[in-house]
Amino acid sequence: MTPRLKGALIALVGTTAWATTGIFISYLLTHYSLAPLTLAFWRDLIVALTLLIGLAFIQPSALRIERRDILFFLAYGSVGLAVFNGLWTYSVRFNGAAVATVLVYCAPGFTALLAPWLLREPLTHRKLLAVALSFGGCVLVANAYTVAAWRVNPIGIVVGLGTGLASAVYSLAGRWSSKRFASSWTVTTYGFLFAAGALALTQIGQNPFSLGSAVDGWLILAALAIGPSVLGFGLYTLSLRYLQASVAMLIAALEPAFTAIMAVLLLAERMAAPQWLGAALVLTAALLAQGEPQEIVSSPAVGD
């Protein structure tokens, strides 16, 4: 097996793991008495603890941060990642796993518009085309072009598009942090730790242990955190040893397609023809955005 093929297979398995995120969330929200923000809190906490324990044994140097870094992680985790994961969980509840995952991929469009202001990256014609395709596709996927959809599911449309914006902000912050921290695991670990801390505040007056004695529910929740998040990100990072970042990112862009297929097969979700067309436009936009020669490609958000 050539290194390139090995890297592609690793990235493909990691992307498949990522694609199950919406499936797990949808199943938990449907079959258990679990509020969306409670689910987001436990997921982030389990991810953070898993990474803390793992890095303590494998790469303890990645856990070292300076006191001045705390302010960054307060913003990055407590605001960026916590908001994204909270919105993402609600989006799955209102829109279903397939549509919610596609809407997250509006992020390249938002990123292209925000990057010139935040990172002074150029807004090229290619990126402008990606923005147009991305937003047009999201409108089709969310059925936002019909009055009936706004009457039936206005919160779902707004929250779904909000996940794309939140993901873009989270991605840009992660891109900026890559210049400061040697290991991406440092940013991921403390990002999820501070996000869990912020989401813990949403549980005041609530019952974070609403799963009670449902052992199977806790196991599925743990599988959600460790599988799609830790395993997916770990495999993606490993694939970068064998692949260029742009190639690995193109494979990762298949996530919404994988999620849609699994949602149809496992959750009996359905997407109409305009929604499939919109998904294709969103995927094309993501590929265009990642194909920029001067683009600094960062890994996908682990919250996906």
What does this protein structure show overall?
With 304 residues, this protein is mostly helical. It has one domain. It is built from 14 helices and no strands. The C terminus is likely disordered.
In brief:
The chain is mostly helical and 304 residues long.
The radius of gyration is: 18 Å
Shape: globular
Order of helices and strands: HHHHHHHHHHHHHH
Query: What is the subunit arrangement here?
Result: single chain
Structural class category:
mainly alpha
End-to-end CA span:
30 Å
Number of strand elements: 0
Estimate the helix proportion, in percent.
over 70%
Q: Strand-residue fraction?
A: under 5%
Q: List unreliable stretches of 5+ residues.
A: 293-303
The helix tally amounts to 14
Supply the key terms.
304 residues
Helices, strands, pairings?
Elements: H1 3-19, H2 21-31, H3 36-58, H4 69-95, H5 97-104, H6 107-118, H7 125-141, H8 147-152, H9 154-177, H10 184-201, H11 215-239, H12 245-252, H13 255-266, H14 273-290
